[in-house]
Structures are given as structure tokens and as C-alpha cells.
Amino acid sequence: MAQTREQTVVHTASMLFEKFSARSLHLANRLVMAPMTRSRATPEHTPDDLMATYYGQRATAGLIITEGTSPSPNGLGYPRIPGLYDTTQVEAWKATTAAVHARGGTIFVQLMHCGRVAHVANLPSGAEVLGPGTTACPGEMYTDSLGLRPHSAPRAMTAADLAHVVTEYATSAKLAIDAGFDGVELHGANGYLIEQFLNPLVNQRTDNHGGSIDSRNRLALAIARATVDAVGRDRVGIRLSPYGVFNGTGAFPDVEAQYLALAAALSSLGLLYIHLVDHSAMGAPPVPADFKLALRAAFNGLFILSGGFNHGSAEQALSEKRGDLVAFGRPFLANPDLVARMRQDAPFNTPDMATFYVPGAKGYTDYPALAD
């Protein structure tokens, strides 16, 4: 595959490759493999040996965060994304956690309920599309059986549905520990269920889960609290994307006030980390630099930065104490030995976008390492 050389000035004294320890984390370096949907699970949403190979290849990352993994049959919006809500999936995930641990890595599973970002053709029998209201997500969803189709309209979640989904997250977190994961990341970003409730452009409710900052934050905090109660605060992080525009979201007038309140409340729960997404490198509005610093100051835990970093910019962010760890997405997708390549300032493999979400090993486990 084609290779590119990263054009950057590298600091002489590197923080990026230092060992890092804090609370439950004891990491070989400060590089995080960001969660990336790869759609390689079975049609029944069960991990397989190919997935274990993929994550094992990348286990030199300080921390791996898996692709979005549904805590519920209702949350399986996409084809071939994995789940973690039954014993079959627990047993299947053990191959992945074992492969990462065998190479000295640390791995968290990202729990992602797609909510209204879904099509019914992608859901198992008996599952349904749910969301804050009944408005379908803009755009289309790929299905293996029907091709591209508009997103299905969701059913507005009742109080009973909301209580049930909180329990599903807590149960899934317990199953994650049973499967050998070192912790869980709650996906509160990119327009999926948790952010659907956070964002007033999507959440038009007038009950105690909508209409004000505290009400919109309520579900995220309930899920975080239940997950901490289930597996312990040192095993729970959350991903957030203020100013994100994916899946019908976007900035709103009190976005900063809301997320600062959320960060303070998450801090009081003792969460391990906030993983902040800035998608400006992909065309979204940037998250203002002063707001990132304010968010970091409001949260008494670890802060993971994500979005368009290279070696030089990651080193600078760490040296300026803007974050504790730095996440990389596509560079890890295409370079199983990214850590070694960065250490040596070696060329990078170029990601093959045509194979991002298709089944099979091509564009998944066949990217060459430097040794090849």
C-alpha cells in the first residue's frame, strides 16, 4: 500500500512515548487508538477472530478504545457492528482482550447505542429504533439487505425506556469486565443516543429529559452513574463532541455552559476520563481552544485529546498540558505499528477508504508493518 511521510517537527524530548500511570491505567505510552467503526463483526453482531487479530496488531498503543459496541439489541443501528449484551458476545470478545493483553496493551470497549441513527433492517428480530422523539435522523443508512435507505423514524422513548437503557449500559459494562476489558468508554458524541439527548437540535422534549441544560444532561449522567456503580469509577470514561455536526447535531447557544455543567457533574461522579472530539480536521467547526481548557479545568480526571493530531502537534499539546493522552484514528487504522513508525519518523501507510466498512481482511488486517 502507498506510504506517506509525516511532515512535522518532532520535539527532542518526547512525552508521547513516555510510560503513563494514573489511577487504574498503566500505559506503555500516551498514544490512544481512537474508536473507529469497522463493521467486521458477524451479521449476528458477534466479534470474530479477525477482530482479535486487528486489535492485537495495534496493541502497542498505550490504550485501545474499540469501535462502538452496542449495549442493547435496540442500539445496533449499523450492519455488522458488535454488541455486548449476551454471554455469546462475552465469550467472543475474550479473544480480542486476550490478544491485546498478550502484547502488554490496555483495552477499553466503547459502548455506543445508536438511537435514531439506524435502520430497522440492521436490527435483530424484536428490536426497534428509539430516540428522544419521532424525527428521523437526516441522511441515509447502509443496510446489507436493502442497500442505502433513509434512516428509520424512531419511537420516542418513554420513562420506562429511559430507565431500561440505563440498566442496559450498566449490565453491558459488567459483561465487558467479564470479557476481559480493562474498562468502558460511554459514547456521548457524534450524534448517537447519549448526544441525541444532550443536543437541543435533536432533543425537543418538554419533560424532565429536555428543555434545559440540567434536563438534557440527565440521561448522560444517569448512564454514567449506573456504569460507575456497576464497575467502578476507575473503569469508566466518556467521549464528548461539543460543536460536532454528525447525525443532525450542531452547536447551539448554550453549548459551552451545558458541557461545562456536564463535565463538573461527571467529575463529581469520579469518571476516569473525558475523551474530547474535535472534528475540525474533517470539516466540522473547531472546538474553541479556550473552551477546551475550561472543560479540562472543570473535570477532575484525565483528559484525552482527539482530532487531526500528528506527532509534532501531539507533543506540543502534551508539553502545554492541554491533555494527558492523545488519540489517533486513521493513522492507527492503516498502521498497525503506528507507535514504531512515529518513533522512527517512518512513512505511514495510506488508509484505503473503500475498505473502511466492508467485510473481510482487506483493508483491515493486511496493512503492512515496517518489518514487512
What do you see in this structure?
This protein is α/β, with parallel strands linked by helices. 31% of the residues lie in helices and 17% in strands. The strands form 5 sheets. Strands 4-5-6-11-12-13-14-15 form an 8-stranded parallel barrel, surrounded by 4 helices. It has a two-stranded antiparallel ribbon with strand order 1-16. It has a two-stranded antiparallel ribbon with strand order 2-3. The longest helix is centred in the middle third of the chain and has 20 residues, at 159-178. Residues 5-12 have low confidence and may be disordered.
Range of strand content: 15-25%
Write the H/E string, N to C: EEEEHEHEEEEEHEHHEHEHEHEHHE
Structural class: alpha/beta
Largest sheet: 8 strands, parallel, barrel
Shape: globular
Q: In DSSP terms, counting alpha (H) and pi (I) runs of 4 or more, how many helices?
A: 10
- Average pLDDT taken over every residue: 95
Strand order, largest beta sheet? 4-5-6-11-12-13-14-15
Q: Specify the helix fraction band.
A: 25-40%
Gyration radius, in Å: 19 Å
Query: What's the oligomerization state?
Result: single chain
Stretches where pLDDT is under 50 for at least 5 consecutive residues are: 5-12
N- to C-terminal separation? Answer: 12 Å
Number of E-state strands: 16
Summed up, what is this model?
This protein has 372 residues and is of the alpha/beta class. The chain has helices at residues 49-57, 87-102, 159-178, 193-198, 213-231, 255-269, 289-298, 311-319, 330-334, 338-344, and strands at residues 3-4, 20-22, 25-27, 31-33, 63-69, 107-111, 130-131, 140-143, 147-150, 155-156, 183-188, 236-240, 273-277, 302-306, 325-328, 348-349.
